[in-house]
Amino acid sequence: ITQNIEDAAILYDAIAGYDPKDSTSADLETSSTAEQLDLSRKLTIAVIDNYISEASPEIQEAYTQTVAVLEKAGHTIVHKNMSNTKYDIAAYYIVATAEAATNLARFDGVRYGRRAVSENLEELYYKTRSEGFGEEVKRRILLGNFVLSSGYYDAYYLKAQKVRHLIRDEFTKIFDEVDLILSPVAPSVAPEIGSIQDPLEMYKSDMYTIAINLAGLPALSLPVGSNAAGMPIGLQLIGNAFDEQTVLDGAYSLEQSLKQSK
Question: In the CATH hierarchy, which fold is given to the domain comprising 5-84+160-261?
């Protein structure tokens, strides 16, 4: 969203805070992260070894080089493993589609959202929800309604929520020992537009980011280099819940260290 970490902190400060009209926002005291950016702060950063093995060779190489840059900057690197990573994608797309189906149900063209031109009530609902949503949104609504339906709720949705808690607990244990986690953003560089037609293949590209959403953690991605074809490679720093300041401090240090290493 921004060109540098300082601007990211300024943008974060502008949108952070409690919104009484948003039931998902937390009523916590906020302060200016931009004013408190600390380049001298030395952090303990975890690398998740079994995460990296799933990435392409060029992503792994960029990751290894970035770890060396962080160590040279004075940060402590520790190695960790996570045991529930194979369930991340399945759990996320069950929970996310169920929530999408529930939240988007209100856009019926009567009380919320776009209303299609129609001659009767049945046509109104059909045309509004057909014309107003793209293919991926429709796919998620259908899957979400399926996992929430009678007979499948316990088999899919409740189990996915249990996995979500396991993932969050595992992150919590790691953050008892470290300040940040360094991770790839995607297992490979961005594909060409239209080169991936299978939705499941697209979902797999989210493997490094979905667990963060499930656990409710802050993260910041930034470019660390490029491959031989000039395609950008990004990594992300993940922080503990509501500890955006540490995420921004770590990213600021990495950004400046990368500039010095060029």
Answer: Amidase signature (AS) enzymes (3.90.1300)
pLDDT reported for residue 190: 85
What is the per-residue pLDDT for 102?
A: 85
Burial 179-217 (b: 16+ CB within 10 A, else e): bbbbbbbbbbbeeeeeeeeeeeeeeebbbbbbbbebbeb
SS3 48: strand
Side chain identity at 169, as an amino acid letter? D
Q: Are 89 and 203 in contact (CB under 8 A)?
A: yes
* pLDDT for residue 105: 75
How far apart, in Å, are the Cα atoms of 197 and each of 80, 93, 134, 193? 34, 18, 15, 10
Per DSSP, the three-state class of 36 is coil
pLDDT digits (tens, 9 = 90+) for 144-185: 888 888 788 888 899 999 999 999 999 999 999 999 999 999
Distance CA 148, CA 213 (A): 20
Taking the chain (262 residues) in runs of 10, the rounded mean pLDDT of each run is 95 93 86 94 95 90 96 96 86 90 73 73 76 80 86 87 94 97 93 76 84 95 92 96 97 95 76
What are phi and psi for residue 46, nearest 5 degrees? -95, 140
Q: Rounded to the nearest 5°, which phi and psi values hold at 22?
A: -120, 110
CA diameter of the chain = 69
Tokens, residue 87: 């369930």
179: nearest Cα among 131, 255, 238, 219:
238
Which part of the chain is CATH 3.90.1300.10? 5-84+160-261
For residue 166, give the 3-state DSSP assignment.
helix
